[in-house]
Automatic annotation (TrEMBL), chains A, B, C, D, E, F:
GO molecular function: uronate dehydrogenase activity
Domain of life: Bacteria
Stretches of the chain forming a coiled coil according to its record: none
Protein name: Uronate dehydrogenase
EC numbers: 1.1.1.203
Cross-referenced Gene3D superfamilies: NAD(P)-binding Rossmann-like Domain
Position of the signal peptide: none
InterPro entries: Epimerase_deHydtase, NAD(P)-bd_dom_sf
Similarity comment: Belongs to the NAD(P)-dependent epimerase/dehydratase family.
Length: 278, 278, 278, 278, 278, 278
């Protein structure tokens, strides 16, 4: 691949992806809203841009083969912020990709698109959307947008529904952890798969207590290696009994299932899914 | 019911609903973006407002029990227009409803939220979103929004996926027609059902050749009476053989399945689903 | 058919069935725990018996072709009562049938075997058991017993999951009503069908707002004629707004979904499903 | 439609279709293996031909828009006969249609393609093939052939799984009857539907006791009017009790479920599905 | 966990669990109907009690956090015995748990709740009940009871459907074996999972030829390590050809699928699932 | 096992099986249409025969316990060839097996029976037939034949849907590879399983990017060990970007999805599934 674009490159997860992505292309163009992302890797360049600026996005994705789209607010936020960064931003990425002949968008979707489903249902990829927040609602929007651009315009997408990509420090994450290595593996498979059409895939590690079923994404070849069970004993020892009437404990969205719409879920989560990037 | 609000009251379908709705409440507040909707019915008042103005929407729905939400661009349109009227507009309606304690939103969703599904699949209400246009994408968004407001805030919604509510003058409409009487019946049931939670329902008449299966919405009691078969012979006589490789003939979204994104589908459809209202 | 047995003949629903059943056989043996059921119909005889007495049941079903089993406590009740009348009683009926070579048991099962399912899900006959009371739990037991006796001993059963067979006087019953005529029709089809194996069927009328889907019981030919919609306007006019967070309004079991286990649901229901018979 | 071809025109069911089909086209070409089918209807011509002769079939379907394919052995028969008439014959019809640019094949498939399924399962159109005879096996073959010609060559097909199209004189037929009028209606809808792709549909009347579920063929608009229930009382009165361990009574294929492979099922059925035509 | 109760502690499987369970709590109270279970482990005490004595059960579970319920007749038995130990006994355990504020019941359910399903169907956890014996029927009852107590009273349950927890010495067990280590692992996960609601899980090892699919119990994190394939060659060498028309070989319940109701299946099984404990 | 028969023994895959099969029986009778297959293994004898000769097949399978049926044209071919070798040949094998009391047929079915399904759907074994060629159509036929002989005559079958059993040298094969070792393992399990009834199973290795889901064949115990991922980097490096509108890249049948019916797919595949044997 000649050119690859990474949005949200200054974000927590984006930062982890920069170096691995340089090894998958001749030229990685990283972009984010901040002025500077520090020292660049070999083959990487940085362009400051706002996702809400379609013209800027077009310029950035010109001649690229794929876009790895991680740029967005990475937490629950007020509607206007989600609208601007996560909804309009998503539109701009797919539309820019279309206008510039980009082949594929690899997208950081989220469990929160379906966060109100019960943990005890072990849902598959065919479960209906059931967002838990504005943040999750925007993920639903982007997935449907990706479906539309595939059906109508032939732009491929992989919607990676990322779970808890952070230190596994609470009881929920023993089931929902995605290690950094497995995240990188997932992104690599989303890029190197020959044909993906419109693909959804759960982004979580090979945890003993995985709360979802990835069997409908077999073709993508995502085979995570890590397993949060290694942290279980320590985490459970520090965890007080959980209230089993609390939706935050019953739903796969975790604390987002009960957080007030528009309010940050960070404190409740005890972990940041991704810091704000755009 | 004391007070009911109708958005999009100046629109083609909204206009049909005004009189029947006055009979279901003490006070019908009709609203649209136009200055005037002509002679009012008994019990009806009119308020000019823009759906994109949240404060205005809040003022209108104050003390209402339900909102019948038909206000939106009723056709494929450029993204910026869909974003403003159909996405932000939808958010404003549900958010205003929440802030003012409104119990339920009865929403004019559309077949175009799932328009890329094949006609020969006779899908049920559990089929995944598969929009055919920006117009359909916005319907997907509003349905997920409705799901979110029910799960998180207890606002009920009925998402009526309206098909071809217009004269049945082409071959597709023999399967997809929704008569005006059946539309009114559907809206009435969406209002008088005691508890609806988050309900989706196909909005089409009792056509012999109905292309979808409503059996998962039994509780709503929608029992359409009309049947487009009465028009079949005449319509088919005037219809040249259809190209069975053309997605417009294969997909339930009809011409929207092939219309260029952002361009009006009206000419292709040969029928207006609804004229622009907001 | 030469001989048919009706249990629970003194009960509310059993009483309605006596006369119609005499027309389907040469000899109807009605039985219940009471001393006397009044004037008998042509071809009917009465035997007082306790369902918990296996020997008595054996004597009654001797030479019968089928048993129509309505005998049981027809409401939520303390566990010990349900155990005796509805669980042990059911065992005795199937076991007596087996010992005496009876071909089929037509059983008054109930919606309460699955009463905790959501009304808005319009479940089919393949939904899992989800009882709402001890009463419903005993229905689950009897259905599984019927399955066992078919698989292991070739005794056929029809499990009629009866909904609200009483005057339709509350909002729930507009969706769940089973008219007396439709009950009789259902029992007739359960008897005259040539081969039924182990069949489950929803027992409710052809209500516009029917909350379940009978399409998996097509072979039985139950085609109800009545429709509670005729009562809807009057009933709704008298019904205050229902609390849509109350499981009694959300679940198909209605008030049984919230009644305390072991306590009668009668007051809450405002209608008796069946009075106590055994 | 200018030209329509009917194979098996001398057969029992084919004979019924000749006159109605003349009303759906300018020119009906009837064909069968016999020398003569008697007096012709207006617009009908007859060509004697053997289905196993591809060149002859090509000549017959030249310039036709559709083929209504009823030509085949209409009963269980020795393998070599089924192979020749029903398998090779089917291949020749679709291949001839392809070579001559015919748009659609309307095919007399049969319940016997799935005859080993249980009557009490009320299967839908998505149930897997489960043939009960060589006859049924050939129907499976032709359905898969139809699927192949649609996917690879764009030839449309409607596979009508005909049940008991004959006098309803036995207990099974109360559930499986297809009246002649409903057969004609089904063929008409299979012809006049604008786009059908590869469509399967159950061919049975609106019987109370219909043993299958047609809800996945909604787009075809088959709405049968007749109901075998009118014969039920008389038929049941003459029917001795059926053995409920006998697969002939348990399976939707009826006597074909137990007939020895290669032997005629006619005697067992008490009714001829169709007499031999080719 | 402060206090844990084990019923059936003198039984074959219960005996294996005593020592591991002491390591999961401060205080293990073992109970069974026998006078004495021999030498106790550190942290273990023993209380003789009859499961049919609700007051005794209440006293035992007082202040316990969870109950591991293995007490029951562990084989097919006459109805009256099953009724007393396995049905009434189960009721007493859940009711005592409820009255004393116990959080969770970990229950030894069994494959025999669904034993009549075909081995070649590889059913999932959503397959309907299909018991093969009175023993299996009582397991169905207890599972429905567990569902009821979760829905109505918030008592959690894990229903472990144990297969062949014994030496793998016959052909069936190569597919159905549950090693003792994997049993312990399963019980541990059923205890240490933070929230389980009403969970069902298949209890069998990681056998190559596992006859069921556990993918709907992902959240529980049961990852068995053992594999009966190590015994396959030896066992098959000693196994005569099996009759493939025999339900004992076709159904996942094995010999229980053909054992006479009420008669012990032990001889047929060649292995005791559990000896009688209550 | 005393005697085992292998058809297609001179074919590419058959050749690989000869030696392993000799270790599973006392006497292996290999057969094919060629005069000679070279040096025989211990316990192996060779009989030249044509699959289209039923009498010859009967003679060969006499006294055999099972037939491993690999004899057929192993590629797309003209209809008449497929008819003779793959359809009539299959009939002869099952019919000969029936006449001679053979217990089981282990059959080399193929992905091409369902080759038109989308790669991104990760279908299970319950997906409907959807052949991509005459070759695949004949596989459909044989699977339905196997179903028929099990249901009606008690002959067991395992239909192994073999994918790409050859060097993994193109992008598709990274997902569809079946190593020779895994093929042998699959055949062994198909033989040594005690009871298989009518079983379908996907025949592909444990590839990261496996395009189908084998979870419904758990009872067979097929646990492939190899993984084509080892070849991915090299293969992808040599692969130009694939056209994602080309059905050959979208469908699991690969190039067969676009090959002209009746024309060899070999050139397109770049690999021979099996050379012609009969």
């Amino acid at each position: 691949m000649k050119k690859l674009v990474l949005t949200g490159a200054a974000g927590r997860l984006g930062s982890y992806l920069r170096e691995p992505l340089t090894r998958m292309c001749d030229e990685l163009v990283s972009t984010d809203i901040v002025a500077d992302i520090g020292k660049l890797y070999d083959g990487e360049s940085y362009v400051q841009a706002d996702l809400t600026d379609l013209a800027a996005m077009e310029a950035i994705v010109k001649d690229a083969t794929m876009v790895v789209h991680f740029g967005a607010i990475g937490d629950e936020a007020p509607w206007d912020d989600i609208l601007r960064s996560n909804i309009i931003g998503a539109y701009n990425v797919w539309e820019a990709a279309y206008r510039q002949g980009v082949k594929r968008v690899v997208y950081a979707s989220s469990v929160h698109a379906v966060g109100m489903h019960l943990k005890t249902d072990t849902i598959g990829l065919d479960a209906p959307h059931r967002p838990d927040t504005y943040y999750g609602l925007a993920k639903c929007f982007a997935e449907d947008l990706a479906s539309l651009y595939w059906d109508k315009r032939g732009i491929e997408s992989v919607c990676m529904r990322i779970f808890s990509c952070a230190q596994a420090t609470n009881a929920r994450s023993i089931g929902t952890w995605l290690s950094y290595d497995d995240l990188i593996h997932l992104v690599e498979r989303s890029i190197d798969s020959a044909v993906v059409g419109f693909t959804k895939v759960w982004g979580l590690s090979n945890n003993d207590r995985a709360v979802v079923d990835n069997s409908k994404a077999g073709h993508l070849g995502f085979r995570p290696k890590d397993n949060a069970e290694q942290f279980a004993k320590d985490v459970f020892a520090k965890t007080p009994p959980l209230d089993n009437k609390d939706l935050a404990n019953l739903c796969i969205g975790g604390p987002f299932a009960t957080v007030e719409l528009g309010n940050s879920g960070v404190a409740a989560l005890g972990v940041v899914n991704d810091k704000k990037t755009t």
